[in-house]
Every structure is written in C-alpha cells, then in structure tokens.
Design a protein that fits this description.
The protein is mainly alpha-helical and about 120 residues long. The protein has seven helices and no strands.
Length: about 120
C-alpha cells in the first residue's frame, strides 16, 4: 500500500472517529421588553434591583439582566411567570404594605407570554 493511500485512510479514519462538535446557534441575550418592564417596575424592582433585598437579588437581579446569558434569561423569565402565577411574588407581606403593586391577571399573562416567547428551543 502506498504512503498516500495509508495517509488517506488515516485521515478519513480520524475524521470519522473524532468527536464532531455540533454548534447550537448563538442566541444573544435581550433586554426586557418595555411593556414587561413597566409591570416589573410596579411589582418587582423594589426588591429585585440593586441595592434591593439581598435574598431577592440572589434569585433575580434585574440590574444585571443584560449580563445574563440568553439561556439564563429564559430560565429567569420562566421563573418570573411561575412565581406571579402562583401568587408567590410579590410576597404577601410586601403586597400588604404596597397593595397597588399586585399584578393584574392581564399583567401576569403579559409576563408569561413574554417568558414563553424567549424559551430556548431544545433539539
């Protein structure tokens, strides 16, 4: 067997058995849309922006939203929807002191529609 043939066989063998990296399309992080941010300003920012409540900031820091990856943004948006839908956010104690901060059903739907629109597609 010629050295060219051996080289060709080695090249194709290496190509076939080498791990092929499949790249996912890069999804850029995006700012929160204005209509969702207006709701967040009413219901979330007092605790979830710096200097805010330290415990709240550990779960969601809207000040750092633009630094989150698109994947992390999608997860946080999904969590926001879940928490307002279940009535866990804003907390009852906060709402007792700030009753006008309660999101309406339409506002909850807006948050959840936005959250669903940015979820990462799994292959």
């Amino acid at each position: 067997m010629s050295s060219v043939a051996v080289g060709s066989i080695l090249f194709f063998t290496a190509f076939i058995i080498s791990p092929v990296s499949i790249h996912k399309p890069v999804v850029e992080p995006k700012p929160i849309p204005e209509k969702v941010m207006k709701i967040a300003e009413k219901t979330c920012v007092k605790c979830h922006t710096e200097p805010g409540n330290m415990m709240a900031l550990m779960h969601l820091n809207l000040t750092n939203w633009g630094k989150y990856s698109a994947e992390k943004q999608a997860g946080k948006a999904k969590d926001m929807c879940k928490m307002v839908t279940k009535g866990k956010m804003p907390p009852k104690k906060f709402l007792k002191e700030n009753p006008s901060s309660a999101p309406s059903q339409a506002e909850i739907k807006t948050i959840c529609n936005w959250a669903a629109s940015i979820q990462m597609k799994k292959k």
